[in-house]
Structures are given as structure tokens and as C-alpha cells.
Write a structure and sequence with these properties.
The complex is a heterodimer.
Chain A (H helix, E strand, L loop, with lengths): L4 E3 L2 E5 L4 E6 L6 E7 L5 E8 L4 E4 L2 E6 L4 E6 L8 E8 L6 E3 L3 E6 L1
Parallel strand pairs in A: 2-11
Antiparallel strand pairs in A: 1-3, 3-8, 4-5, 4-9, 6-7, 7-8, 9-10, 9-11
Chain B lengths: L4 E3 L2 E4 L5 E6 L4 E9 L6 E7 L2 E5 L6 E5 L5 E5 L8 E9 L9 E2 L3 E5 L1
Parallel strand pairs in B: 2-11
Antiparallel strand pairs in B: 1-3, 3-8, 4-5, 4-9, 5-6, 7-8, 9-10, 9-11
Classes of the chains: A mainly beta, B mainly beta.
Chain lengths: 111, 115
């Protein structure tokens, strides 16, 4: 079973607009990570936020974490066609070996 | 520094057969994890190997087994293949025993189709 749930499941926006994806999880975590996957291939790590952090930036990416609500959001600003992909949140638990992934948000950027 | 590589890229097997998938971890990484990703789903953890020992296992039956070699490359073996085993199999490596405390470096995956 998967812990995280992404919302929305699919998102389609125009190039240049901002895209926001949300992730909720169920148990306590050590960190939360966001990954991108193009066309069913390997996952690319985007950003990691630790449980004691509230916000993190990396280029056009902004991630927030609210441990009281067990939720996170990923904002991609000034979207580009190349951002079209599936985005997954994954949680790393205390003392756990595994990452627990959500079902992903399928993002489409229209030119 | 080479990234994580997996072979083969695609594989077609029939029900009941056995399959071996291979993964070479990123240079300097001694921890390898395997994930199964069914179509339209997120990856699910199969197991992890650290210094040639199994170091955690997900909810997968014993017919899913693995190995890690002294050079930290790894194999995933699946016996008695079932139709539901059709999926993308992903290998991920990470540095010295960090497990999930840092980013995982994923390979491109092996697409397995069971007919």
C-alpha cells in the first residue's frame, strides 16, 4: 500500500503558468522527497525537505512541508514544455530503509 | 562518475518462467534498493541491500529474491512469473548506508512484460 496521495492526479496548464501539486501522507517522517519521471522511465530526484524544515527552494521549484497537517506542496514557477512529466512525492520514515511513494501527479504543459 | 545502469531495458517472459534483472550502482554507493512500478502507479519498495546483505524488505512474496555483489552491483530474481509481475522495475542506489535519509539515485528501469 502507498502512503502518499498526490492531488491532483492530473494537471494541464499553459506554458509560463505556475503548477502546484500537493501530497499528503499518513505516518511520521524523517524527510519528504519529490521526484520527476518522464514517459515511464527512471525517476529523477528534484528536492528533499527534512521534517524540521518548512520551505525549500531549488531554481524554479519551491517545496513546503507542514508536518502538523502531514502535507507538502511542490510549486513549479514559469512552467516550460520540458516540465511535462509525472511528479511523485516520497516519504522516508524514521529508521526505515524504504521510500514510500504516492501515486503521482501527471503534469502536462501546453505550448 | 557513472550513474545507475540497469539491464536489460525491456524483457518479455511467459507465465511461470524465471527472470533476472541487473543493476550497477553509482560509483561510491554501497546501498541498492529495488522498486516495482505498475502502470499508472507509484513505485513500491521490494527490498534493499547494504554491503551484500538484505537490509529491509517490502510486502513481496519470497519468489522475489536478490543479491548484491562485492562491487555493489545487484540482481533481482523473480521465480514463477505471474501476469501481475508485469511492471517497470527500478533500481536505486545511495551512498554509505544512508538509506532513505538522502536522495536516491535511480536507474532507467527494466520494463518486464509477462504474457
Amino acid at each position: 500500500s502507498q502512503q502518499g496521495e498526490e492531488d491532483p492526479q492530473a494537471l494541464s496548464i499553459q506554458e509560463g503558468e505556475n503548477a502546484t501539486m500537493n501530497c499528503s501522507y499518513k505516518t511520521s517522517i524523517n524527510n519528504l522527497q519529490w521526484y520527476r519521471q518522464n514517459s515511464g522511465r527512471g525517476l529523477v530526484h528534484l528536492i528533499l525537505i527534512r521534517s524540521n524544515e518548512r520551505e525549500k527552494h531549488s531554481g524554479r521549484l519551491r517545496v513546503t512541508l507542514d508536518t502538523s497537517k502531514k502535507s507538502s506542496s511542490l510549486l513549479i514557477t514559469a512552467s516550460r514544455a520540458a516540465d511535462t512529466a509525472s511528479y511523485f512525492c516520497a516519504t522516508g520514515g524514521q529508521g526505515a530503509q524504504k521510500l514510500v511513494f504516492g501515486q503521482g501527479t501527471r503534469l502536462t504543459i501546453n505550448p | 562518475e557513472t550513474g545507475v545502469t540497469q539491464s536489460p531495458t525491456h524483457l518479455i517472459k511467459t507465465r511461470g518462467q524465471q527472470v533476472t534483472l541487473r543493476c550497477s550502482s553509482q560509483s561510491g554507493h554501497n546501498t541498492v534498493s529495488w522498486y516495482q512500478q505498475a502502470l499508472g502507479q507509484g513505485p513500491q519498495f521490494i527490498f534493499q541491500y547494504y554491503r551484500e546483505e538484505e537490509n529491509g524488505r517490502g510486502n513481496f512474496p519470497p519468489r522475489f529474491s536478490g543479491l548484491q555483489f562485492p562491487n555493489y552491483s545487484s540482481e533481482l530474481n523473480v521465480n514463477a512469473l505471474e501476469l501481475d509481475d508485469s511492471a517497470l522495475y527500478l533500481c536505486a542506489s545511495s551512498p554509505e548506508g544512508t538509506g532513505v535519509y538522502n536522495e536516491q539515485f535511480f536507474g532507467p528501469g527494466t520494463r518486464l512484460t509477462v504474457l
